[in-house]
Amino acid sequence: MSDLVDLLDTSHFQNGLLLGLLALAVGWMLSLAFGRKRPPLPIGGFLITAATFGALHLAEEPLNSAVPALVLVAIGSLATRLLEMPRWVQPFAVMPGAVWLAVDTAGTELQWVRVLMMVLIPLGGFLISDFELRHDRMGLGVVFLTLAVLGVFAAVPDTEEALVLMAAAVPITLLAWPRVRISLGSEGAYLAVATFLWVAAAGGGGRPASIVGASACLGLLLLEPIVVAVNPLAIKVMTWLTNSPAGAVVASIPQVLLVFVCSRFAARLTQEPLALLVVIVAYGATIVIGWKASTSNLDSRRSAT
Fold first, then answer.
1. In the Cβ-directed half-sphere of 254, how many Cα atoms lie within 13 Å?
2. Which residue intervals of the chain are DSSP H helices?
3. Per-range mean pLDDT, top range of 35-39, 130-134, 170-174, 298-302
4. Which residues are within 8 A (CB) of 61 and not within 5 positions of it... i.e. 6 or more apart?
5. pTM of the model
6. Do 121 and 98 contact (CB within 8 A), yes or no?
7. Comparing 128-132, 150-154, 243-247, which segment has the lowest mean pLDDT?
8. Contact criterion met (CB below 8 Å) for 23 and 48
9. What is the DSSP letter of 40?
10. Domain that includes residue 229, residue range
11. Judging by beta carbons within 10 Å of its beta carbon (0-12, 13-18, 19+), is residue 270 exposed, middle or buried?
12. Both ends of the chain: CA-CA distance in Å?
């Protein structure tokens, strides 16, 4: 109990919560002004990123050139949409910002972590953006990301940055559940994954395997688009749920399980290859279950007809 009280008394938590509540208020006002009878406003990724780095600045954490790099990520992703380029161009457009952020990350000197960021920010942003195309009206992008953020806090040994991200993201999630007012957004997906990985790298340097587990907490945000691309029937596993608060909770159960395994098992190991093995097994089991569920769904439909 004393540890929890000490946690709530830190400037990192208080600044994160303050900026998170401010972002909640801004998002709520924007949704009232522009979001009535329209799809959810695609501002979740921007709000989470702005609140997190604003709070880190207030806590006097060293940010180096993280903010300009994130701005470059946003410009790259936004430019492709404004110019009406194909969606597959977007990851290449955000690559310069991703490389800048990875190279400039002060939390780690591990080269494989920098490479991971360079690859996963464009690729992960693309996959999450694809996920949002199907599930933004359920708010699942924001909800799943917040669950992943909780996993990062549980995974990394140095929790200052993760505490800020968690304190900022949780209030913003109220804009996506129980009533869906916002989504991460296409550009926001890239910003969200960039912020997420920056925090994981900053907090995991003391136990590098924790960065593997923390990054893998993205879970279904990465897996679902891949499974759907290979087997389009898999989309039925989640879309059969109604757009309701209860439906979002049920849809979140596999994400919760993945986050638990990655943050409490993979991230606790001392060697990166072993952590990666646990992640591969967890991801593989999730893919198999999703594939079986979609197949059984098709079989039941055929038998019904």
1. 21
2. 2-8, 11-34, 44-58, 66-82, 90-104, 111-135, 140-155, 160-173, 186-203, 209-216, 220-230, 236-239, 245-264, 272-304
3. 170-174
4. 12, 160, 161, 164
5. 0.93
6. yes
7. 243-247
8. yes
9. P
10. 2-304
11. exposed
12. 57
Query: Residue 84 class from Cβ within 10 Å (0-12 exposed, 13-18 middle, 19+ buried)?
Result: exposed
Q: How many domains does the chain have?
A: 1
Residues with Cβ < 8 Å from 72, sequence gap 6 or more?
Answer: 94, 96, 97, 100
Q: Which amino acid is at 185?
A: G
139 dihedral zone (left: phi>0; alpha: psi -120 to 50; beta): left
Taking only the tens place, the pLDDT of each residue in 72-130 is 999 999 999 889 899 999 999 999 999 999 998 766 678 999 999 999 999 999 999 99
Which residue type, as a one-letter code, is found at position 57?
A: H
**Around Cβ 158, how many Cβ atoms within 10 Å?**
15
